[in-house]
């Protein structure tokens, strides 16, 4: 099939959503489909082409829609630039899409234009809108399939009136091959100046997302707390943005190595050097953490075969349970410290959990995910 992937995000992009788009499209290529991306014209600091930047198939064609970067245009301040960009894309897209078999998007703002063509359309939802809920539900019912990242998201969408038959739950996924063989552990630990016997706890991911604190400081505080009792341990924190890196460095001690933003191959070195991976979350009722997020990092962690501790939030329970990870109460540093100490003292049990996680993640590859989704057409 000829698939058009329509998005309003800048591509290539250093942000996670750009990588997610590339992974979805690359999976379609591997399944034997042809894919063209339609993305807005943007002035981009990333100079590499799409396939080289993400390490995906060069068969993915990318089309840039329009000739004005409304986001960086001084005449369209703040959200006005985004509004103008979406309006422009809705106007320009339909003429380019008429020959495609399937339209695919994760951008709710483009959905009206796609549905106007009467071509089977798949909507992948990463965040539920706060306004026009019932109008959005009506548009979802006109799609051939609606993909929710989490069960809590699906449940709310159905409560708005979307037919349950149209909705599937498919979280994010992973390219297992990229994590099957990690770099040499001794070399990786040497790179990060980790000494023999230092138990190493690590996190790789954004420190903040959508201006929301992801709880990374809990790892810092927990490790400082444990190390103050004379325990020989270190923490590696990889991720940005740069402003948050500097803030975190100021609150960190000698047991914390804040690495900043790393390239993907360097993140693999962090995994290799680690004894335990942690996925944190703050104590909050925010919908991002409680309903919408399906962290790609969780699937990466599972692929590494390393033991892990995760904040216990409803979306995470779609993938993980107590047989594959230790859970801790989000925002609770004392509970996180207790779980880290348990992991240090029960290595055999933790490695058994990590092995089960690595087996489970085989069902969460991008290829299998997209095969399940596209089978509805």
In the CATH hierarchy, what is the class of the largest domain? Alpha Beta
CATH topology call of the largest domain: Rossmann fold
* Distinct helical segment count: 16
> Any low-confidence stretches, pLDDT <50, length ≥5?
none
Number of domains: 2
Question: Can you describe this structure?
Answer:
The protein starts with a strand and ends with a helix. Strand 6, helix 6 (151-159) and strand 7 (167-169) form a beta-alpha-beta unit. It has helices spanning 16-30, 50-54, 79-97, 111-115, 133-141, 151-159, 177-180, 185-191, 216-227, 242-251, 264-273, 287-292, 296-304, 333-345, 347-360, 366-374, and strands spanning 2-6, 34-40, 61-65, 102-105, 121-125, 145-148, 167-169, 199-204, 208-209, 212-213, 233-238, 256-260, 276-279, 308-311, 326-328. The protein is built from 16 helices and 15 strands. The chain has 377 residues and is α/β, with parallel strands linked by helices. The protein has two domains: 2-175 and 365-374, Glycogen Phosphorylase B (Rossmann fold), CATH 3.40.50; 177-363, Rossmann fold. The radius of gyration is 21 Å and the shape is globular. The protein has a seven-stranded parallel β-sheet. A six-stranded parallel β-sheet has the order 12-11-8-13-14-15, with helices on both faces. The protein has a two-stranded antiparallel sheet with strand order 9-10. The chain is 41% helix and 17% strand.
Briefly characterize the structure.
By secondary structure, the chain is α/β, with parallel strands linked by helices.
What distinguishing features does this structure have?
single chain, Rossmann fold, 7-stranded parallel β-sheet, 6-stranded parallel β-sheet, 16 helices, 15 strands
